[in-house]
Specification:
344 residues; alpha/beta; 12 helices; single chain; 7-stranded mixed β-sheet; binds 5-S-methyl-1-O-phosphono-5-thio-D-ribulose
Length: 344
C-alpha cells in the first residue's frame, strides 16, 4: 500500500486523505504553512499521523529560516511551532511531537539545529511505525478466532503513518491466522469510516460491512458484534479517552450489551499532564461539515449546526487500553503511570 506520509528529498509527500477513496493524489509540501494547512484541512489526519506530519513540517519550517543568528532563528522557529500547535487541538501526538522537536532544537549553530530537527522528525516517524506494529501484535492476542469487531472512524495506517492502531490490531489478528470480520461505522460528519476504513480493510482482504453510525446499537442487540475496538486522539492520566465523536455512544452501548470495548493507541497519545478527560480540549470544527456532505448542502440554508470533532469516553467504559508497552486495565491511573516519559 502507498505510504501516507513520506520524507523525500527534503520535502514532505502526503497522500491526500480528503480525496480518498475516489482519487489517490499525492501532494509534495515544501514549506511549513502548507503542512499546517494540510493538517487543518485533514488532508493528513489521525492523531499519530498528525504528530509525524507536524514534526516534518517543523523541520521544513526550520530549513526555510534564513538567518544565521541563533537567537533570531530560535525566535522564528517558535512561531513555526505555534502554527502547528494551533492546527488540531485534541490530537495528543501533535503536542508530544512539538515538545520533542523543541528539545531537539539544540546545537552550536543554525545548520546543526536544522539537521537535528530533520533527524528528530525521522525518529518520531520511525517510532510511530515501531510502536503501532508492536501494540497491534500485543492487542491481537485479545482477539479470538471468529470475532466480529466494530470500529469507528479510521485508525489504520492512514491515521498513524505506521501499521495502524485499532485496524492494526485487527490486521495482526488476521496475520495470526484468526478469522475476523468487521463492522465499520460511516463516521459522520466526514465519513472517515466509509471512505478510509473500508478502503484499508478491503486492501487487506478483511471482510467488512459498512453501517451508518446509528445502526451500531441494532447490531449489538442482535448479538452480531463481539468486540468494539477504536483508536484514540488523546488519553488522560486516569484513562479517559478522547476519540472521534460518537465513540462515547458506542462505549455506552457496548457496556449495556456486555461487549468488550478496547482502545488501541501508542504511548505518544497519552498525556499524563491532564488528570482526566474533561481537561482534554475538544476541537470544534466548521458547521459546514455537518450541513454539507463533500461540498453538497443537505440542510436548509442558514441552519445552526454544532460540530464537536471528538468526545470523551470515561475510563469506566473501557475494557483495556492497548499500547506498545503493554495492555493496561483498570485502575488506569496506576497502569498508565510511566508510559509517557516523553510527553512533558
Ligand atoms: O479527526 P480525525 O480524522 O483526525 O480523527 C482522528 C481519528 O481518526 C480517530 O479519532 C482515531 O480513532 C484516532 S487516530 C488513530
Amino acid at each position: 500500500m502507498a505510504r501516507p506520509i513520506e520524507w523525500l528529498d527534503g520535502k514532505l509527500r502526503i497522500l491526500d486523505q480528503s480525496r480518498l477513496p475516489r482519487e489517490q493524489i499525492f501532494i509534495d509540501l515544501d514549506n511549513y504553512p502548507d503542512v499546517a494547512l494540510a493538517i487543518k484541512e485533514m488532508r493528513v489526519r489521525g492523531a499519530p499521523a498528525i504528530g509525524v506530519a507536524a514534526a516534518y513540517g517543523i523541520a521544513l519550517g526550520a530549513s526555510g529560516i534564513e538567518t544565521a543568528n541563533k537567537d533570531e532563528f530560535l525566535a522564528q522557529l517558535s512561531q513555526v511551532m505555534q502554527a502547528f500547535a494551533a492546527s488540531r487541538p485534541t490530537a495528543g501526538n501533535l503536542f508530544q511531537a512539538i515538545n520533542r522537536m523543541k528539545k531537539a532544537a539544540r546545537g552550536d549553530g543554525v545548520t546543526e539545529i536544522k539537521n537535528s530537527l530533520i533527524n528528530e522528525a525521522k525518529r518520531i516517524h520511525k517510532g510511530e511505525i515501531t510502536a503501532t506494529k508492536k501494540l497491534s501484535q500485543l492487542g491481537a492476542e485479545l482477539i479470538k478466532d471468529g470475532f466480529t469487531l466494530l470500529t469507528h472512524c479510521n485508525a489504520g495506517p492512514l491515521a498513524t503513518a505506521g501499521y495502524g492502531t485499532a485496524l492494526g490490531v485487527i490486521k495482526a489478528a488476521k496475520e495470526q491466522g484468526k478469522k475476523v470480520s468487521v463492522f465499520a461505522t460511516e463516521t459522520r460528519p466526514l465519513l472517515q469510516g466509509a471512505r478510509l476504513t473500508t478502503w484499508e480493510l478491503m486492501q487487506e482482504a478483511i471482510p467488512v460491512t459498512l453501517i451508518t453510525d446509528s445502526m451500531a446499537g441494532y447490531f449489538m442487540y442482535q448479538k452480531k458484534i463481539d468486540c468494539v475496538i477504536v483508536g484514540a486522539d488523546r488519553i488522560a492520566a486516569n484513562g479517559d479517552v478522547a476519540n472521534k465523536i460518537g465513540t462515547y455512544t458506542l462505549a455506552v452501548l457496548a457496556k449495556e450489551s456486555k461487549i468488550l470495548f478496547y482502545v488501541g493507541a501508542p504511548t505518544s497519545t497519552i498525556d499524563l499532564s491532564l488528570s482526566s478527560g474533561d481537561k482534554i480540549p475538544i476541537e470544534e470544527r466548521s458547521p459546514e461539515e455537518v450541513t454539507h456532505i463533500q461540498g453538497v448542502p443537505i440542510a436548509p440554508e442558514g441552519i445552526r449546526a454544532a460540530n464537536p470533532a471528538f468526545d470523551i469516553t470515561p475510563c469506566s467504559y473501557i475494557t483495556a487500553i492497548i499500547t506498545e508497552k503493554g495492555i493496561i486495565r483498570a485502575p488506569y491511573t496506576e497502569g498508565l503511570k510511566g508510559t509517557d516519559s516523553r510527553f512533558s
